[in-house]
Amino acid sequence: MHSVLNMRLFLVFIFLALFLGSCSPKETSASPVSLSVDELILLLSEETEQLTIYNFWATWCTPCLKEMPDFERFSKEHPEVKLIFVSLDRKSVWDSKVPQVIEELGIKSQVFLIEPETDLNWRYRVSEKWKLMSIPVTLMIEGDKRLFFDAPLNYRDLGIAQLQLQKTLSNTSIFEKK
Protein backbone atom coordinates (compact mmCIF):
# COMPACT_ATOMS: atom_id res chain seq x y z
CA MET A 1 0.00 0.00 0.00
CA HIS A 2 2.79 2.42 0.93
CA SER A 3 4.75 1.54 -2.19
CA VAL A 4 1.75 2.35 -4.44
CA LEU A 5 1.19 5.63 -2.60
CA ASN A 6 4.89 6.46 -2.78
CA MET A 7 4.93 5.65 -6.50
CA ARG A 8 1.92 7.92 -7.12
CA LEU A 9 3.51 10.75 -5.13
CA PHE A 10 6.74 10.24 -7.05
CA LEU A 11 4.89 10.40 -10.41
CA VAL A 12 2.96 13.50 -9.31
CA PHE A 13 6.25 15.11 -8.27
CA ILE A 14 7.89 14.28 -11.62
CA PHE A 15 4.85 15.61 -13.52
CA LEU A 16 4.85 18.87 -11.54
CA ALA A 17 8.61 19.28 -11.97
CA LEU A 18 8.31 18.83 -15.72
CA PHE A 19 5.24 21.05 -15.97
CA LEU A 20 6.65 23.85 -13.82
CA GLY A 21 9.98 23.60 -15.60
CA SER A 22 8.28 24.14 -18.93
CA CYS A 23 6.47 27.22 -17.55
CA SER A 24 9.63 28.96 -16.39
CA PRO A 25 11.32 31.59 -18.55
CA LYS A 26 13.03 30.10 -21.55
CA GLU A 27 16.71 29.54 -20.87
CA THR A 28 17.52 27.32 -23.81
CA SER A 29 18.29 28.36 -27.33
CA ALA A 30 15.39 28.89 -29.67
CA SER A 31 14.67 26.17 -32.21
CA PRO A 32 15.07 27.65 -35.69
CA VAL A 33 11.99 27.67 -37.92
CA SER A 34 12.29 27.55 -41.71
CA LEU A 35 10.20 29.96 -43.78
CA SER A 36 9.93 30.72 -47.45
CA VAL A 37 10.66 34.24 -48.64
CA ASP A 38 6.92 34.69 -49.30
CA GLU A 39 6.07 33.65 -45.73
CA LEU A 40 8.65 36.10 -44.38
CA ILE A 41 7.28 38.93 -46.52
CA LEU A 42 3.77 38.17 -45.27
CA LEU A 43 5.03 38.35 -41.69
CA LEU A 44 6.77 41.66 -42.38
CA SER A 45 3.57 43.12 -43.83
CA GLU A 46 1.52 42.47 -40.69
CA GLU A 47 1.09 45.61 -38.60
CA THR A 48 1.80 45.15 -34.93
CA GLU A 49 1.79 47.61 -32.07
CA GLN A 50 4.77 45.78 -30.57
CA LEU A 51 8.17 46.95 -31.75
CA THR A 52 9.61 44.05 -33.74
CA ILE A 53 13.24 43.88 -34.78
CA TYR A 54 14.26 41.63 -37.68
CA ASN A 55 18.01 41.10 -37.89
CA PHE A 56 19.27 39.43 -41.08
CA TRP A 57 22.50 37.49 -40.58
CA ALA A 58 24.55 34.44 -41.55
CA THR A 59 27.04 32.20 -39.77
CA TRP A 60 29.86 33.29 -42.09
CA CYS A 61 29.26 37.03 -41.46
CA THR A 62 31.67 38.27 -38.77
CA PRO A 63 29.95 41.66 -38.23
CA CYS A 64 26.64 39.79 -37.85
CA LEU A 65 28.02 37.49 -35.18
CA LYS A 66 29.58 40.43 -33.37
CA GLU A 67 26.31 42.39 -33.11
CA MET A 68 23.98 39.50 -32.22
CA PRO A 69 24.78 39.43 -28.48
CA ASP A 70 23.96 43.17 -28.28
CA PHE A 71 20.60 42.49 -29.96
CA GLU A 72 19.91 39.64 -27.56
CA ARG A 73 20.83 41.80 -24.54
CA PHE A 74 18.63 44.64 -25.82
CA SER A 75 15.69 42.27 -26.24
CA LYS A 76 16.18 40.80 -22.78
CA GLU A 77 16.33 44.25 -21.17
CA HIS A 78 13.34 45.52 -23.19
CA PRO A 79 10.64 42.83 -22.91
CA GLU A 80 8.25 45.05 -24.90
CA VAL A 81 10.46 44.43 -27.95
CA LYS A 82 10.14 41.30 -30.08
CA LEU A 83 13.43 40.20 -31.66
CA ILE A 84 13.66 37.83 -34.61
CA PHE A 85 16.94 36.72 -36.15
CA VAL A 86 16.64 35.81 -39.84
CA SER A 87 19.41 33.50 -41.03
CA LEU A 88 20.33 33.69 -44.71
CA ASP A 89 22.60 30.65 -44.54
CA ARG A 90 22.57 27.87 -47.10
CA LYS A 91 20.17 25.06 -46.32
CA SER A 92 23.14 22.68 -46.01
CA VAL A 93 24.17 24.27 -42.67
CA TRP A 94 20.70 24.67 -41.13
CA ASP A 95 21.10 21.53 -39.00
CA SER A 96 24.77 21.96 -38.14
CA LYS A 97 26.39 25.39 -38.16
CA VAL A 98 23.29 27.51 -37.43
CA PRO A 99 22.33 25.70 -34.18
CA GLN A 100 25.99 25.69 -33.15
CA VAL A 101 26.29 29.48 -33.55
CA ILE A 102 22.95 30.07 -31.81
CA GLU A 103 24.16 28.01 -28.87
CA GLU A 104 27.62 29.61 -28.75
CA LEU A 105 26.17 33.13 -28.78
CA GLY A 106 23.48 32.30 -26.21
CA ILE A 107 20.64 33.31 -28.53
CA LYS A 108 17.22 32.79 -26.93
CA SER A 109 15.14 34.83 -29.39
CA GLN A 110 13.27 33.36 -32.36
CA VAL A 111 15.42 32.34 -35.34
CA PHE A 112 14.01 32.01 -38.85
CA LEU A 113 15.84 30.13 -41.57
CA ILE A 114 15.26 31.63 -45.00
CA GLU A 115 16.58 30.08 -48.14
CA PRO A 116 16.99 33.12 -50.35
CA GLU A 117 15.72 32.85 -53.88
CA THR A 118 18.24 32.83 -56.70
CA ASP A 119 16.74 36.09 -57.88
CA LEU A 120 18.21 38.47 -55.30
CA ASN A 121 15.46 41.03 -55.91
CA TRP A 122 13.48 39.44 -53.06
CA ARG A 123 15.36 41.79 -50.74
CA TYR A 124 13.43 44.77 -52.17
CA ARG A 125 10.29 43.12 -50.84
CA VAL A 126 11.83 43.33 -47.36
CA SER A 127 12.75 46.99 -47.87
CA GLU A 128 13.18 49.11 -50.99
CA LYS A 129 16.21 50.58 -49.17
CA TRP A 130 18.07 47.24 -49.23
CA LYS A 131 20.22 48.24 -52.22
CA LEU A 132 23.22 45.92 -51.89
CA MET A 133 22.91 42.26 -51.01
CA SER A 134 25.00 42.71 -47.90
CA ILE A 135 24.47 41.82 -44.27
CA PRO A 136 24.00 42.51 -41.45
CA VAL A 137 20.73 44.25 -42.15
CA THR A 138 18.13 45.22 -39.57
CA LEU A 139 14.50 46.15 -40.03
CA MET A 140 12.55 47.66 -37.12
CA ILE A 141 8.76 47.72 -37.40
CA GLU A 142 6.17 49.25 -35.11
CA GLY A 143 2.66 49.71 -36.46
CA ASP A 144 3.07 51.18 -39.92
CA LYS A 145 6.46 52.74 -39.11
CA ARG A 146 9.71 51.18 -40.34
CA LEU A 147 13.41 51.84 -39.92
CA PHE A 148 15.97 50.06 -42.09
CA PHE A 149 19.67 49.74 -41.29
CA ASP A 150 22.26 48.33 -43.68
CA ALA A 151 25.17 48.44 -41.26
CA PRO A 152 26.09 46.69 -38.01
CA LEU A 153 24.37 48.03 -34.88
CA ASN A 154 25.33 47.89 -31.23
CA TYR A 155 23.30 48.11 -28.04
CA ARG A 156 23.39 51.92 -27.96
CA ASP A 157 22.35 52.14 -31.64
CA LEU A 158 19.32 49.97 -30.93
CA GLY A 159 18.21 52.25 -28.09
CA ILE A 160 18.59 55.37 -30.25
CA ALA A 161 16.73 53.69 -33.12
CA GLN A 162 13.90 52.68 -30.78
CA LEU A 163 13.56 56.27 -29.61
CA GLN A 164 13.70 57.55 -33.17
CA LEU A 165 11.00 55.13 -34.28
CA GLN A 166 8.74 56.00 -31.38
CA LYS A 167 9.24 59.78 -31.45
CA THR A 168 9.80 60.88 -35.04
CA LEU A 169 7.44 58.39 -36.70
CA SER A 170 9.71 58.80 -39.71
CA ASN A 171 10.84 56.35 -42.36
CA THR A 172 14.31 57.89 -42.43
CA SER A 173 17.23 56.87 -40.32
CA ILE A 174 20.18 58.70 -38.85
CA PHE A 175 22.19 55.51 -39.42
CA GLU A 176 21.60 54.98 -43.12
CA LYS A 177 24.53 55.26 -45.45
CA LYS A 178 24.39 58.17 -47.85
Describe the structure.
The protein is an alpha/beta fold and 178 residues long. The protein has one domain: Glutaredoxin (3-Layer(aba) Sandwich). The chain has helices at residues 2-23, 37-45, 62-77, 97-105, 122-126, 155-168, and strands spanning 33-35, 52-57, 82-87, 110-114, 137-142, 145-149. It has a six-stranded mixed β-sheet with strand order 1-4-3-2-5-6. Strand 2, helix 3 (62-77) and strand 3 (82-87) form a beta-alpha-beta unit.
Key terms:
178 residues; alpha/beta; Glutaredoxin; 6-stranded mixed sheet; 6 helices; 42% helix; disordered C terminus
Q: Can you describe this structure in just a few lines?
A:
This protein has 178 residues and is an alpha/beta fold. The protein has helices at 2-23, 37-45, 62-77, 97-105, 122-126, 155-168, and strands spanning 33-35, 52-57, 82-87, 110-114, 137-142, 145-149.
